[in-house]
């Protein structure tokens, strides 16, 4: 026994990804080809594999969103030819040094041609990055973002109708997550625009232009 066990499933293929382990996965179908995106764990980057023939997975490309070794690109979502990648400061427990990480936020790619992804735009929050983001097509990306003045991550909604210029249109957070200085600013804003604290947005299934 090699330690593996399964029931009602069969292992049919394995790829060592050039000895660079993967983490999160996303799958799309392009012109009847099945394309798998696999984020690298120990270094920035996203593998692109053709898995149309599942017994013969093939690397067909790689996305390197940053050259900062202290930045993790663990999260990936893809739909309607738009890939949403994340940038976040790698935690010390995983070999990171947040004080010297060089980038953060969300990066958008046109992956209608998987072998030639094109960076379209990015959005930066000004803190340590995003984690556990969600996108299944349409106009909005739902992100969990670290933002200045908050402990931990908050819920943020990005409008990606123009992928070259994504913009935040809503956010939600617990009052207890704010720092003391941020609570003063939030209280001042709340009297003029409650949406700055309790953001709401109507979602749409309409795909971004060009998707």
Counting DSSP H or I runs of 4 or more residues, the number of helices is: 1
Compressed to H and E, one letter per element, the order equals EEEEEEEEEEEEEH
Radius of gyration: 19 Å
Number of strands: 13
Helix content class: under 10%
Low-confidence stretches: 181-207
Measure the end-to-end span.
48 Å
Shape: globular
Question: Structural class, from secondary structure content?
Answer: mainly beta
Q: How would you state the average pLDDT, rounded?
A: 85
Strand content: 35-45%
Biggest sheet layout: 5 strands, antiparallel
Structural key phrases:
211 residues, mainly beta, 5-stranded antiparallel beta sheet, 4-stranded antiparallel beta sheet, 13 strands, 5% helix
Give a structural overview.
- With 211 residues, this protein is mainly beta.
- Helix content is 5%, strand content 36%.
- The chain has 1 helix and 13 strands, in the order βββββββββββββα.
- It has one helix at 180-190; strands spanning 22-30, 33-40, 46-50, 58-63, 71-72, 76-79, 82-89, 105-110, 118-123, 129-130, 140-146, 154-159, 167-172.
- Strands 5, 6, 7, 8 and 9 form a 5-stranded antiparallel β-sheet that branches. A 4-stranded antiparallel β-sheet has the order 1-2-3-4, with no helix packed on it. A 4-stranded antiparallel β-sheet has the order 10-11-12-13, with no helix packed on it.
- A hairpin with a 2-residue loop joins strand 1 (22-30) and strand 2 (33-40).
- It is globular.
- The termini are far apart.
- The model is unreliable at 181-207 (pLDDT under 50).
């Amino acid at each position: 026994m090699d330690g593996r066990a399964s029931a009602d499933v069969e292992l049919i293929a394995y790829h060592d990804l050039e000895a660079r382990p993967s983490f999160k996965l996303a799958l799309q179908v392009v012109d009847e080809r099945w394309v798998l995106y696999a984020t690298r764990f120990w270094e920035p980057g996203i593998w692109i594999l053709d898995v149309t023939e599942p017994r013969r997975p093939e690397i067909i490309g790689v996305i390197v969103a940053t050259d900062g070794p202290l930045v993790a690109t663990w999260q990936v979502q893809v739909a309607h030819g738009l890939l949403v990648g994340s940038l976040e400061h790698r935690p010390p427990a995983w070999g990171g040094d947040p004080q010297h990480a060089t980038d953060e936020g969300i990066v958008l790619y046109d992956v209608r041609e998987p072998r030639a992804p094109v960076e379209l735009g990015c959005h930066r929050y000004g803190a340590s990055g995003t984690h556990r983001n969600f996108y299944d097509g349409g106009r909005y990306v739902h992100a969990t973002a670290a933002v200045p003045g908050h402990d931990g991550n908050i819920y943020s909604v990005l409008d990606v109708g123009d992928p070259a210029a994504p913009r935040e249109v809503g956010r939600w957070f617990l009052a207890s997550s704010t720092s003391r200085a941020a609570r003063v600013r939030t209280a001042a804003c709340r009297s003029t625009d409650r949406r700055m604290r309790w953001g709401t947005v109507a979602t749409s299934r309409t795909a971004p232009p060009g998707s």
